[in-house]
Amino acid sequence: MGAVLAMKNYMLVASICLLSGCLPIVDKLAGQPAPERVSLSAEALAGPFLLVQIPSRNVSATLARIAVNADVETWITADNVSLSFRQGILVASRGLGFDLMGADATGTLAALSGSEAGIYRHQMRYLTGDNHNTYLMAGCQMQNKGSEVRSGQTLHRLEESCVARDNDFTNVFWVDANGRILQSRQWVAPEIGYIDVSLQAKRPAPDK
Hints:
alpha+beta, YmcC-like fold, twelve-stranded antiparallel β-sheet
């Protein structure tokens, strides 16, 4: 059990160490070698980037886009923590612990576009500690909350309220006039809670 907890703590700390020199600190805390770093291409390093925060853990990271498969984009840290989004909707995570293995974003995307009204289904798949799949089926409904000015832009705020087995959550999306999700707060898993996501055209300047 101690080894499992150490690895989970290691992955949590490692997830915030992106494109920086904090891996030696991670090694010291975890007492084990760091995961293999990812080689990011010049194109990936040029941007765009995602700023991601996990409020429940008080951590944040910057992720570079490393792959595009149809309408699914995968974003990754230098130490291999990744998030995948289908047109801005979270559909998978890797490296956080208690990861989202897959999700069906069809209903959410239809509701965001206005073609889905009423209650729709949102299915999420997780991997248990003994390597078995477990599914969480939520009933969701989208509401338009009007316009907000965020980071100097006027965006439409839409809230997706979902009810699933002992888990109620509300995803929030801030969408531009072209229908792109520029900012969001999305629920990952019961053990993780929400992530806050912001799309950035350029890599943020490092803290001094």
